[in-house]
Amino acid sequence: MALRCLLKSPTTSSYISKICGFRMHGTKAVASVVEEHVSAMLRSEREDGEYADVDWDNLGFSLVPTDYMFATRSCKEGNFEQGCLSRYGNMELNPAAGILNYGQGLIEGMKAYRGEDGRVLMFRPELNAMRMKNGAERMCMHSPSVQQFMEGAKQTVLANKRWVPPPGKGSLYLRPLLFGSGASLGVSAASEYTFVVFGSPVQNYFKEGTAALNLYVEEVVPRAYIGGTGAVKSISNYGPVLDAMRRAKARGFSDVLYLDAETKKNIEEVSAANIFLVKGNTIVTPATNGTILRGIIRESVIEIALDLGYKVEERVVPVEEIKEAEEVFCTGTAAGIASVGSITFQNTRTEYKVGDGLVTQQLRSILVGIQTGSIQDTKHWILEID
Questions:
Q1: What would you report as the CA-atom Rg of the chain, rounded to the nearest whole angstrom?
Q2: Which H or E run contains 197?
């Protein structure tokens, strides 16, 4: 694959020279140098072996720096230049950048999996691309096209292929970022934006691994407000819940389940995952009404459940209903499908069924099978990276 930086302005040339690690002296010469430089590095690493030197059996969910990241930048008109790969590393920012002063930033989360046949697969990446575009509109930001987003993700996976864990050992987690890099002193949208994709090999998101989670219902701090940014993956959604998470984990809980800000009577989300209650043949989950993120795994699980004949209800879910559930599980790109063993609300602990032969395990097995290529993808959810 040709890896080129098409540089159309002195500003972009200066910027790309920083992220790619060498000086620029003209568009054609730069494109040639970048392509030859990156291609040589990739060839060298391929010759070093199929896999990076990683203890695959002891991966958690923490940053393991890989070889390369992808980056591109928009101009004032909102169009993004063709991006390029560079060595993973720090980036420079103007102190007046929109991300630093006014929180103009979005994140995404996606994974690349290695199948038993050696293929590298991604799960529904076009939905991440579209969700970022929708989030950018809400945050008054320029955004890359779906095609540009997909190209950045694919180049990042290909360049870091040796960091995709062996089958059954985890996945390569990708973190696409979009942020205001242009300077703005007054309260206003940034004039320029940067799109970056980097990756890290990971296994389980929660420290419990595959063990069931114990959640705590937070009654004071809400995750999102009506009219706010709860429905998009804004960076500003996550900082405010860190204190509630810290307090819950200090008491031995895995994570926090939040209530709606308006009435504090209805469950909404876990800190970084959607939640489902199982009651017989019915699966219930809070409706995405503007304060809840429309998770990609959430949408996929709903579709799988319907195919299996379950009734799925997306609606307001009163917190008292947690006492009626037989099973509870969380979904998210990072979390996958995680079983919940208990939820504590107002000092009352409700416990749920966990283990093999249950609805949660059935849904997880099908989802993971599709993601890793062991189950035929009849829905066209999988993108093979080659």
A1: 22
A2: strand 193-202
For the record, the structure tokens of 266 come out as 């209805």
pLDDT tens for each residue of 185-239: 999 999 999 999 999 999 999 988 789 999 999 999 999 999 999 999 999 999 9
CA atoms within 13 A on the CB side of 241: 23
The amino acid occupying position 95 is P
Choosing from 154, 233, 353, 379, the catalytic residue is 233
Two structure tokens written together for 18: 């920083």
Quote the tokens at residue 170. Answer: 């985890």
How far is the C-alpha of 177 from the C-alpha of 125, rounded, in Å? 14
Q: Which amino acid is at 193?
A: Y
Q: What residues pair up with 343 in beta bridges, in sequence order?
A: 215, 350
What pLDDT score does 46 carry?
Answer: 53
- The pTM (predicted TM-score) of the whole model is 0.88
**Annotated catalytic residue 379:** no
pLDDT at 338 over 90: yes
Rounded Cα distance, 375 and 366, in Å? 7
Asked if 314 and 294 count as a contact pair (C-beta separation under 8 A), the reply is: no
Classify the C-alpha dihedral 164-108-384-306 as positive or negative. Answer: positive
